[in-house]
Amino acid sequence: MRKVGEVLWEGVALVLMMLFAYTAISKWYDWGATQNAMYNQVFPEWMATLLLYSLPVLELALAIMLLFPKTRTLSLWACLICLIGFTVYIGLVLTDVFGRIPCSCGGVISNLGWEAHFLFNLAFITLAIIGILVKPEDERVG
């Protein structure tokens, strides 16, 4: 019988895999809106260009890595770092650090406001932490 921690570890990986795959595919699917949204953010154009082309690839790579037990923990950590980075950015937007509120993400998640997106990200940060903490013993590096 499988241990609860192992099932939870795989379940968290599956949920994060779906999130990251969805965000990557939605960016490619509606490339024009993705470009408009990215270039409407508050960071410099060079950074918007870098993120525009690298984020979907990174998100899809992390989603694929979550499929495999050997790369799952590394991917969970990378997902956590990405989620924290974006959540900090959302927090800065919400606290008016930039002096304006840029448009949000594409896809279904775009229906969330910045406040709801902040809470959404906090939930996924929590999931990533749980996934890291419940990693089965036989998958730990010794």
TrEMBL record:
The UniProt record lists the keyword Kinase: no
Residue stretches spanning the membrane: 7-26, 46-67, 74-94, 114-134
Subcellular location: Membrane
Alphabetical UniProt keywords: Membrane, Transmembrane, Transmembrane helix
UniProt-listed InterPro entries: Methylamine_util_MauE
Species assigned in the record: Echinicola arenosa
Membrane topology recorded in Swiss-Prot or TrEMBL: Multi-pass membrane protein
Limits of the Methylamine utilisation protein MauE domain: 8-133
Name recorded for this polypeptide: Methylamine utilisation protein MauE domain-containing protein
Record flagged with keyword Ligase: no
Primary subcellular site in the record, as a coarse category: membrane
